Fold this protein.
Amino acid sequence: MAITSHLAPVPPGYKPRWRDILEENVAIYRRLPEDLTLVVEELIPWFIEKVEWEWSHWAGPAPDKELQQVCVACEACLLIAHRSKKDYSHFKKFIFFPTDLAPVKEKDNAAVGDANSYYGQIRQGWYWTKEGMEDGGDNYNVTIHEFAHMLDFRSIEESVPHFEQSAVKRDYKSFLKEEYQDICRAWEEKTNTEVIRKYATTDKAEFFTCATEAFFERSEMLRHKRRELYKWMKQIYGVHPAQWPVRVSSADLLRARYMGLESWQSLSTWETEKDTLPQWPEGISAEEYDPWREGERERRYREERKRIEKYHAEKRRRELLRLAQEKRIAEERMREKREHFERLKRLKLEQLERKSREQQLMNNRTVVLEHPDGLPHLKYRLVDGHRDGVMKRWDQKGRLREETEFARGRKHGKVIYFYANGQIELEGYHSLNERAGVWFGWHEDGSPSFRSEYTNGELKKWEQIGDKGKLRTYGKVKNRFGR
């Protein structure tokens, strides 16, 4: 996961503080193997320099431009880490919006991002961009989605990225035709749909982008549910994310360095350690870099000697076996029969383990329910099949309308409802699905509306706040609220 084994030097043009930014804000960066981390970091300065950046319709506090550029560049460069810079040769401009893209017509629904092949540009709302990159496992990542479109634009065919070999491209197109039909059919029948977003069925061009999101954010589930699709994504991107660690936090990285690096303190960052980082070796690319290359060379030499000795030992063993060939044939047949039964037994056990793992993945995941246009509607976390943590609800315009805390499937903790303008409408607490303590209500203009008190789920006191702060108190009233 990321870089925890040593104080690795930063590639040319890359700033140490960018590692701090990415570890704090980009979940998928924290999961990357160390060698892939350096490859991505080597591409980021090139990407930032290449792109024309723009901030549109921005209001309120000034944007943190460096943070936003580095975060977007990281996820964009991940897609071409083992491909080619030519995939982005037609890409020129990136435009940030605060929340959603400005609609062309007033009646248009809000969009969180789009990619344009003619202008070579991508537009994204920062709110949703940040929401996607901070989770890393909810199968919703605006940046990965839109830059997958940009990879797709290199080819004139929808959902067909560039392949160096025409024969491989033909095989992929044949696979794509059947796989896309199967995904659309699965969503129509509402079976086996957890790993690919329904948005993939709205247009064939969205298949590759949604498959890319699933490949990086729900890699293990994609490998279980759609094994052939995972193999194609693995071949296209040259990485194997199902083998990466899952849901690594920035605290996990700090803890690993604190335990394994002598110079790393509890409050250390890459920025504070920049003066102690070794220099990047001149003329060495990230893929070639190996801080233990001398030790590795010695290790390979020992392994080669072992291989040669093993080869000669095997040669002598086969010479002796040749003298007892007839006896060996009988023993070999018996061994093959035993191996056959063992293989059947092992396959059965693997099937049972895979089903168990699939059920575990289904019961421990981040669930995102979407509006018809692909915008999130509900988002919550399942732990052992129960809702756990904060549930968020947005309306069709992408406005946050509710935050409710759950514990083991029951409402437990703070709950807040919002008006469409962002003002809090209602705030209180649940205790095991029952209202508890003091609840407050506000009007849409922000002025107080009422105050109520609950004991054991029963309303004990209601105070309505009138004009000029006047209070009107009621006694015990049953079902005072509509919610």
